[in-house]
Sequence to fold (170 residues):
Amino acid sequence: MAITWKDIPGYEGHYQASSDGRVRSLDRTVSMGRGGHTKKIRGCILRPTVERDRWGHLKVGLRRDGKTVTRRVHSLVMLAFVGEREDPSLVTCHGDGNPANNHLCNLRYDTQSNNSLDAVRHGTHPTGSKTHCPKNHEYTAENTLVRPRGEGRFSRTCLTCKRAAGRKGP
Fold:
């Protein structure tokens, strides 16, 4: 499959995103202060850094009008190829659960709830992949109470711990 580059809206002529999840700057001339001097800047593929959060998304810094703004790579790819989210409550989701895989075919706009369900399915959800409760009782179908918490969210309760808590007296 051929790699396609598209301008990032708001940064046309300065930055582009690719269908394989990269961001590049373009060759351009910038003014250097009040004297009217200019400087040619050669474009290059930007080296992303990893966000210091529990998810590990890739981010890059984009410079315009003397200010640098840090943006997540997956958001820039979706913005360039799909456009703005129709609904501001939607988030950008990674189909395979890997926040470093920013290929266009791996990204989609979806609800936060569906993004969390994806994380459980991939085994990357911080609590969805746990097999035992804090007291080390196994989460099995017979030992787990699953309750809806609203908006597609659920909570799990260990029935062994629940029974033990009910037996405690004053």
Notes: The helical segments are 73-81, 112-122, 159-167. The chain has two domains: 5-125, 130-170.
